[in-house]
Design goal:
The chain has 127 residues and is mainly α. It contains six helices and no strands. The radius of gyration is 15 Å and the shape is elongated.
Length: 127
């Protein structure tokens, strides 16, 4: 079976996330909870901006998501957000839909991974 690049890379890189959280599993869990709580509204805002073909707003929202996904060590989501941001900066409106679908797919892959990642962090921290 062929894997797409996003399937061959973990949705969230736990060792990298822990490194970014100074090896504090409780902090990493809090960061993930914040990400989860914000995810759907981030997608809704991006969707609205794309629906309006507002390149500037799409660029801002995609840039913010790129930073958020980097903070939680979600590299494939960060890459998808980066591609959307680049399309927006180049005013390639026709590409917004394709890139938004990729962002949405990666966001849902990250959200689906959260329970296992959170459990891994709890077990690793001895909680």
């Amino acid at each position: 079976m062929n894997e797409t690049p996003s399937q061959s890379v973990p949705a969230i890189d736990v060792p990298l996330l822990l490194d970014r959280c100074m090896d504090d599993a409780a902090l990493a869990i809090m960061v993930l909870e914040s990400f989860r709580n914000q995810a759907e509204s981030d997608l809704a805002e991006l969707d609205a901006c794309v629906g309006k073909n507002d390149s500037e707003a799409v660029s801002r929202r995609a840039h913010a998501l790129k930073g958020t996904s980097g903070a939680v060590a979600a590299s494939t989501l960060m890459d998808a957000a980066c591609r959307l941001e680049e399309a927006a900066c180049s005013q390639m409106v026709a590409e917004f839909g394709e890139h938004l679908r990729a962002v949405r797919a990666e966001m849902h892959r990250c959200l689906d991974a959260l329970p296992a990642v959170t459990e891994q962090l709890r077990v690793g921290a001895g909680k």
